[in-house]
Design brief:
alpha/beta, Rossmann fold, 18 helices, 12 strands, 13% strand, elongated
Length: 527
């Protein structure tokens, strides 16, 4: 009995805050919920980021649904990345039953069906407002990290961006970027090397292959215009509820490169555009990244360093980032150390490796005399979790085994007709689904390369004409020379002197011949 009273006192003191908070559920001891002993999270510390972990089927998705709808009700906009496609129900009210009523009786709050204002967004072919960004907005450093390039290749990327800036060539999509690479390795090679230094063709070829790899992940659908304004994530409905923006990612589960590219660009854009906020009573925006292991499994070391830096710095903008994954081991330690809220659902221990991972996961939580965390973490039921957060002074709250409340919204997906109706009412869907064809680097350089080709063809044509003209001149000169020689000979032959000389020579020749003949004739006669 004394242990129970001490537990109640510990949880009560640890989860009592001066400012506003959200309620996750009721604390449990020895497998039983204590009615009315609520476990809360202060809104003022939700920009310190968080983790929701647990095995498949343990209730992670419903937990993030609970958090999103409560944050929305408190006036905090939320961005959800829905990879499995089962979060859309947050746009419709839920329904009650006996189990839900019993659960909420233990929590100390009645179950009230509710809905949240929702916008559907898309990176690809899914329904919703299209999310795009231009290559220029990434910048050379981030673009280099996304492609996983070395320092030499990164230097060429810097040259590409500098050349495009100097020559007012908008880098809108990957086609623009590829065209610039083709230009600097081809007709523009001399121009580039004269202004920016030598660029090896082999380096350009290596970068081109990386770009093709990114395109095969479907990134060409992401790069383009109209570029998404992160400020549109921080919107409210007419009742002051924060907008829940759901990015439908069900068709890119096998394209983690695109997913991580989008996430990193979004964090970078938010960090560069949102003003410094300092300490706030509640976050300006909360971002929930489901299936976060897809981001980190394919990330290079440079990309991981960039994510760590973004997570560390973005909280000063009033933004909280929450990773949802199966095990804390899926998150790099450098990132895990930045997460103030930890919600741990059940883990499964099927192998020795699993047991080792569970032991390590238990060490991520505050030491408590009330639970054997390493043992109980495998025994948590669906809708139960270990929870610790940061209090208003930044100190971890006492670890609590929590019976989580039920989502107030629908615990199922919306129908296609319901989704279509929401998109038809959306203001930003009309804004971002408009196709914009800008005069970008691809168009400008295509025209320039065509002009260079025409000039080269014209130059080659002129050279050919000069060659033919020179040949004709040589032929004409040779013919004229022969004609001149012939004319001179004819003049000499036809002149009176030549004719007289000719007659004299003929006479002398005749005399000689006749003389010989005459001698021979006389001799014959004498005989």
């Amino acid at each position: 009995m004394a242990k129970r009273e001490k537990f109640i006192e510990t949880i009560t003191q640890g989860h009592t805050f001066k400012g506003d908070s959200i309620v996750l559920g009721a604390a449990m001891l020895n497998g039983e919920a204590i009615p009315g002993l609520q476990v809360k999270i202060p809104l003022s510390t939700l920009n310190r980021h968080g983790l929701i972990a647990g095995a498949t089927g343990s209730g992670k998705t419903k937990t993030l649904q609970i958090m999103a709808e409560q944050l929305s009700a408190k006036g905090v906009p939320v961005l959800l990345m829905d990879i499995k496609g089962d979060i859309s129900g947050i746009a419709a009210p839920g329904t009650s039953n006996a189990k839900i009523e019993d659960r909420h009786h233990k929590i100390g709050e009645p179950f009230v069906p509710a809905t949240s204002p929702v916008e559907f967004l898309s990176l690809s072919g899914e329904k919703g407002a299209r999310l795009r960004a231009t290559v220029t907005e990434f910048g050379p450093v981030l673009f280099t990290k996304i492609l996983g390039l070395n320092d030499t290749q990164g230097g060429v990327i810097a040259v590409v961006f500098k050349y495009c800036d100097d020559n007012k060539l908008p880098l809108v999509d990957l086609a623009d970027f590829r065209k610039v690479l083709q230009y600097i390795a081809g007709p523009g090679k001399e121009e580039i090397e004269k202004e920016y230094g030598q660029v090896a063709s082999s380096t350009v070829g290596a970068i081109m292959r990386k770009v093709v790899e990114l395109e095969q992940q479907g990134a060409e659908a992401f790069f383009g215009e109209r570029s998404f304004d992160p400020g549109d994530l921080c919107r409210y409905d007419d009742n002051g509820k924060g907008m829940v923006s759901v990015i439908r990612l069900t068709d890119i589960q096998d394209r983690p490169k695109l997913f991580s590219t989008f996430m990193l660009q979004l964090l970078a854009e938010i960090y560069s555009t949102f003003p410094e906020e300092g300490d706030m009573d509640q976050p300006k925006l909360c971002i929930v990244i489901e299936e976060a292991h897809l981001v980190f499994n394919e990330a290079s070391k440079a990309l991981l360093n960039q994510i760590e830096a973004m997570v560390r710095l973005i909280r000063s903008k009033g933004v909280g980032v929450f990773f949802v994954t199966q095990s804390p081991a899926d998150i790099p330690e450098s990132v895990l150390a930045q997460l103030g809220l930890k919600i741990q659902h059940s883990l499964r221990a099927f192998t020795a490796k699993d047991r080792k991972s569970i032991k390590l996961a238990a060490e991520n939580y505050p030491v408590t005399e009330f639970y054997d965390v390493a043992q109980q973490i495998t025994e948590l039921g669906i809708g139960e979790a270990f929870v610790t957060a940061l209090n208003e002074k930044g100190i971890p709250t006492p670890l609590a085994h929590v019976l989580l409340r039920a989502p107030q919204s629908r615990m199922d997906v919306l129908t296609d007709q319901e989704i279509d109706a929401i998109i038809r009412r959306s203001q930003i869907a009309r804004k971002y689904n408009e196709v914009i064809d800008t005069n970008s680097a691809h168009d400008i350089l295509t025209r320039k390369m065509e002009q260079i080709q025409r000039e080269q063809q014209e130059e080659e044509f002129q050279k050919q004409r000069e060659k033919e003209r020179a040949q004709l001149t040589r032929t004409t000169t040779s013919t004229a020379s022969r004609r001149t020689q012939k004319s001179t000979f004819e003049k000499i032959v036809d002149s009176p002197t030549t004719r007289q000389i000719g007659r004299t020579l003929a006479q002398e020749l005749s005399r000689g011949l006749l003389g010989v003949l005459g001698i021979k004739t006389t001799a014959r006669r004498r005989r």
